[in-house]
Amino acid sequence: MRNEMMYRPIINEDILNYLRTEQKQLTGKLGDLEAVAHENGVPVIPHETVVFLQFLLKQKQPKNVLEIGTAIGFSASLMAETIGKDTHITTIDRFPVMIEKAKKNFAALDLTDQVTLLEGDAADLLSTLEGPYDFIFMDSAKSKYITFLPECLRVLADDGILMVDDIFQAGTVLQSIEEIPRKNRAIHRHLNEFLAEVTKSPELTSTLLPLGDGVALISKNK
Length: 222
Fold this sequence. Notes:
With 222 residues, the chain is α/β, with parallel strands linked by helices. It has helices spanning 13-21, 28-39, 47-60, 74-83, 96-108, 122-125, 145-155, 185-200, and strands spanning 64-68, 88-93, 115-119, 133-138, 156-165, 204-209, 215-220. It has a single domain (4-220), classed as Rossmann fold (3-Layer(aba) Sandwich). The chain has eight helices and seven strands. Helix 3 (47-60) packs parallel to helix 4. The longest helix has 16 residues, at 185-200. The chain is globular. Its EC number is 2.1.1.-.
């Protein structure tokens, strides 16, 4: 379960520690879920990304949200609690173990009416969705980001935001592929394809942020 990329900071460790410990902490059951996830090495978004996501959602106030990569349900729960009852979240995951844990966490947080969990591969399910979604959060298999991007943009509202997590592969994404362990080279190639597309496409506006293992914010040009 432990994700080594969570423990290889891409910024100064003192700054990273400050961002994770000195910004406002979560409370209640959601805070407990975050703490347990970190204690057990479960790959949930780090706290600096939590704080940024809360801020962004409070400004955007999306009504219809899509998440790709439910895991234990932490991010979906965070979004639901941040935005409130006026929003609905659709989240996708294909791993039975994670699906079971996410369902338990949604029930414990009283979010079962607000969150719809779709079970299956996003490669199959995305094409069945109609949208539009005001906000999309993608935190799934990194090698699939470039594959999922067209469908995400299809269902993204004209004024919507696509937020993509973990784009820098622990700071190694710009290294030559010869420096990358063979087991990670497919991820390396596809992440570079994804970054090239979202930063160079004339149809998109994007910004990249050094939060956690890197975050991309993407919108469609009208």
